[in-house]
Each structure stands twice: as C-alpha cells, then as structure tokens.
Amino acid sequence: MKQDKLSTEVITSSLAMLEGWKLEDDGVAIAKSFRFKTFASAFAFMTEAAQAAERLNHHPEWFNVYDKVDVRLTTHSAGGVTALDFRLAEAMEKAARAR
Amino acid sequence: MKQDKLSTEVITSSLAMLEGWKLEDDGVAIAKSFRFKTFASAFAFMTEAAQAAERLNHHPEWFNVYDKVDVRLTTHSAGGVTALDFRLAEAMEKAARAR
C-alpha cells in the first residue's frame, strides 16, 4: 500500500498522543530514545519490535548500547513520515510497556 | 575478570585472523559492518549475537537498518580493546556464518 507523507500539522498532533517521541530537526523522521533496566530487557524489547516491523513490512533505524535503544522511523519511499511510522511507533510503545 | 587493554600490535595481528574487522581511527574499538539478505536474517544474527553477549557479559554498540548491522566493540573499563572484544567478534562471525 502506497503511504502518503503526513503534513507537519498531522505529525505534531499524532506525536502528542505518544510519550517521548519527537519530530527530528530535518522533519523527515520521528525518533525516541528508550531506556531499559538491562541489556536483556532492551533486547527483549527489540525482539518484539522486530516482529512488529516484519508484520508491518516497515523497519526501524535503531542503535543499541547496553540498556539504551535509540529509534528513528521514516518512510523512505514517501520521503518523510507516514501513518506506517506511527503504527510502528505504537507497536514499540506496547513492546516497551511489557518490559 | 579484569581485562587488560591490548597493544596495537596484538590488536593488528588478532584482526588479521578475522574477516572484515578493523581498528577504528580512535584506536579504542574494533568495528565491522555486516550485510545480510533481509531484515529477518539481520535480526536473527543480532539475536544470536545478543545471546553471546550475555554469556560473555560484554555487549556491543550496534546500529541496524534493514539488512545492515554496524557493530562497534570496545571495553569501557579498560579504555580500549581487550580479549573480550575479540571473543565477542568471533561469536558474531559464527552467528553471521549461520545466516
């Protein structure tokens, strides 16, 4: 399904419904830095998030070091943020809450 | 177990036994960029590598986007590269070969 790039207005109002996510300065991605108790918890989060990414066929850019996972979501084919990014962000929030 | 920082000479000869790893410019970490066929393969590699990291109690800094995993290994407590980094690098090579 072709995804349309969302307007900054829609992105801003959608971000208001999520905790700790922000629009990056370049305006083409949303990002969050997650913090867990241990590496094992951080990686368990990543495992659940990876499954959601496969289901959505939409994948994160992410960096992990020990208990920290920095996530950046963008839709390359649309050149910006789409509804898919928010669906993956929501799945990640759910995965993080389970830790 | 306290790990001693390895000399550049030892690091260089150890790197020669691994494929595609290099010493970073700052001299305190070894790094490799892995490439897989799909996100699923890349994440399966990460899952096996994460288990090795837990066994060694030594963890990577790594970045993933789709089929690519950039890894950086260093031993913070030693301020450089130690034998632990090479043990984790070898475990990662084994995990990558299984994909």
UniProtKB/TrEMBL annotation, chains A, B:
It is an enzyme of class 4 (lyase). This is Putative pterin-4-alpha-carbinolamine dehydratase. Pfam families: Pterin_4a. GO terms for biological process: tetrahydrobiopterin biosynthetic process. NCBIfam families: PRK00823.1-2, PRK00823.1-3. Its EC number is 4.2.1.96. GO terms for molecular function: 4-alpha-hydroxytetrahydrobiopterin dehydratase activity. Gene3D superfamilies: Transcriptional coactivator/pterin dehydratase. Keywords: Lyase. InterPro entries: PCD_sf, Pterin_deHydtase. The keyword Kinase does not apply. It catalyses: (4aS,6R)-4a-hydroxy-L-erythro-5,6,7,8-tetrahydrobiopterin = (6R)-L-erythro-6,7-dihydrobiopterin + H2O. Transmembrane segments: none annotated. The keyword tRNA processing does not apply. Belongs to the pterin-4-alpha-carbinolamine dehydratase family.
